[in-house]
């Protein structure tokens, strides 16, 4: 994503856009452990090992809990990855137009600076 930002975001705004992207991603990812725990317990049936249970019952419960955690992790990773894939696919469709717009904006800005420099030299 950073190479796209480097081409379509004006140079003076890049630092802010990079920081916004990183902070947004970090904030969303901070909820991942909680989401995995909730999914494992409420959706996929994670259960604590009952006290006083036999070794074979503990092993079976551990296997079921491991499967519950695996499913929760897969869900917590798979769904956001699919959403990102969809959003990035959209961005790649609009990228050529955005890149040309950014280049034109940069060219206009540099021409304006040249005109201002010429005017200040002639004064």
TrEMBL record:
What would be one Gene Ontology cellular-component term for the protein?
membrane
Q: Which UniProt keywords are listed? A: Membrane, Transmembrane, Transmembrane helix, Transport
User: What species was this sequence derived from?
Assistant: Quercus lobata
Where does it reside? Membrane
InterPro entries with a match to the protein in the record: MFS_spinster-like (IPR044770)
The topology of this chain with respect to the membrane is: Multi-pass membrane protein
What are the transmembrane regions? 72-95
Q: Which domain of life is it from?
A: Eukaryota
Protein name (database record) = Uncharacterized protein
């Amino acid at each position: 994503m950073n190479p796209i930002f480097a081409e379509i975001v004006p140079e003076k705004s890049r630092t802010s856009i990079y920081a916004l992207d990183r902070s947004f991603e970090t904030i969303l990812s901070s909820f991942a452990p909680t989401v995995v725990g909730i999914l494992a317990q409420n959706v996929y049936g994670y259960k604590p090992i009952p006290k006083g249970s036999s070794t074979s019952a503990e092993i079976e419960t551990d296997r079921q809990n491991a499967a519950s955690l695996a499913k929760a992790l897969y869900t917590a990773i798979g769904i956001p990855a699919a959403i990102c894939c969809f959003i990035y696919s959209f961005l790649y469709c609009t990228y050529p137009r955005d890149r040309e717009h950014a280049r034109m904006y940069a060219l206009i800005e540099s021409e304006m600076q040249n005109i201002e420099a010429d005017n200040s030299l002639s004064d």
